[in-house]
Design goal:
This protein is of the alpha/beta class. The chain folds into 2 domains: 168 residues, Rossmann fold, CATH 3.40.50; 196 residues, 2-Layer Sandwich (Dihydrodipicolinate Reductase, domain 2), CATH 3.30.360.10. The chain is built from 14 helices and 18 strands. The strands form 4 sheets. A 7-stranded parallel sheet has the order 3-2-1-4-5-6-17, sandwiched between helices. A 7-stranded mixed sheet has the order 10-11-12-7-15-16-18. Strands 8-9 form a two-stranded antiparallel sheet.
Length: 385
């Protein structure tokens, strides 16, 4: 099995790290604009992998070069910026290569679905949105819905957080501040009374107890977390929503920052200079929130409620993962980058449920996926109430 990993940042490197530790993986080619030194956690594994790890400088916007680079690989896995994923998926299909990505933008997913007929004709699998959220949570939500005669409510909560929060935001950058700000400013699609509607990001804050963490966290709406699920289950599920988890008080501060216009992307004039408020905000704040020594955690809760056999059922899945000091991998890298590698391995082995373009809830067998996470020390607790 030969894999191309598009994007050599933290998530792409985590994906490559996991692939190189799996039997049957002959080669992993880590592709990005520059062949800079690999992430620290990948250095040791790269040394032991020898020639199985290749590096390739590749401009992802040079589509002819992308197609050539992917042609001799079984699967292409994208940890590149979301806006590149439609073109990357199209070139993968043209090259005869399975494709999956971390996604995060539902409009791009709908464009990728247009490639379904082409992918099916070649017996290829294209699976967008296979990270943590969207990704893992979609698989669990659909898994829960299928176990009930009638699913009525689906509530999903996910957060990447520092283990030791520091004021004023009690937050540290665990993947991309720009990405987080997109979620804080993009309305979220939800289901209310079975109908698809939008709600404002940072709205409807609620406090939740996490006994395994020993703390309360707050949840609030953010965009993109459940991808196409509101479209798929409109008219079937009465309530469906996704909320990001942070330490209490975070949403209030971020809402004030947003409402003051500091996250705007439209240029503004300042003392004769044209500046973009969000760019200024990121340039000033990101260094203060990016602390390499910070150890993170990922908290997740998926709740599916409804009826089965005439009885009320409440199905709950919970995950709490922490920074791995042995490998140096963050919890966000483990839960997101490993999700991408697991999907790619399933595609290469023929374990996915269908060819063509399909979201993870449609394409990935939940039981096998959960067992693959468990094999990597990522445990998901389940209870029925």
């Amino acid at each position: 099995m030969k894999f191309a990993v598009l994007g050599a940042g933290l998530q792409g490197s985590a994906c490559a790290f996991d692939l190189l530790g799996r039997k049957g993986v002959e080669q992993v080619t880590l592709m990005d604009r520059e062949t800079s030194p690999p992430s620290p956690f990948l250095v040791e594994r790269a040394a032991s992998a020898g020639a199985r790890l290749q590096r390739l400088a590749l401009d992802f916007e040079d589509l002819a070069a992308v197609k050539r680079a992917l042609t001799d690989h079984d699967v292409a896995l994208s940890a590149a910026p979301y806006y590149l994923n439609y073109n990357l998926a199209r070139e993968a299909v043209a090259a005869g290569t399975h494709f999956a990505d971390l996604g995060g933008n539902t409009e791009i997913v709908f464009k990728q679905l247009e490639l379904d007929e082409q992918a099916r004709a070649k017996g290829l699998s294209v699976i967008p949105d296979v990270g943590l959220a969207p990704g893992l949570v979609n698989i669990l939500a659909a898994y829960g819905i299928r176990q009930l005669d009638q699913a009525e409510e689906v509530r999903i909560y996910v957060g990447g957080l520092p283990q030791n929060p520091e004021p004023p935001l009690n937050y540290a950058v665990v993947y991309s501040l720009e990405g987080a700000l997109d979620y804080y400013t993009t309305p979220s699609w939800v289901l209310r009374d079975g109908q698809r509607v939008q709600v404002d990001a940072l709205d409807e804050v609620e406090l939740l107890d996490f006994p395994s963490l020993g703390k309360q966290l707050e949840g609030f709406h953010t965009g993109g977390g459940i991808s196409t699920l509101p479209w798929k289950y409109e008219g079937q599920v009465q309530l469906m929503e996704y909320k990001t988890l942070r330490y209490p008080g975070h949403a209030k501060i971020m809402r004030a920052i947003r409402d003051l216009g500091l996250l705007e992307t439209e240029p503004a004039q300042v003392n004769g200079y044209t500046v973009v408020p969000r760019d200024v905000f990121v340039s000033i704040v990101a260094p203060k929130l990016t602390k390499p020594e910070t150890q993170d955690l990922v908290a997740m809760r998926v709740i599916v409620e409804g009826t089965a056999g005439g009885s009320r059922k409440r199905l709950v899945w919970e995950l709490l993962d922490r920074y791995d000091s042995e490998t140096g991998l963050s919890a966000m890298e483990r839960t997101t980058g490993f999700s991408l590698s697991i999907t790619g391995l399933m595609q290469a082995r023929g374990d996915v449920l269908r060819s063509g373009v399909a979201t993870p809830d449609e394409a990935i067998p939940a039981d096998l996926y959960i067992s693959e996470l468990e094999a990597r020390g990522i445990s998901i607790a389940f209870r029925e109430e």
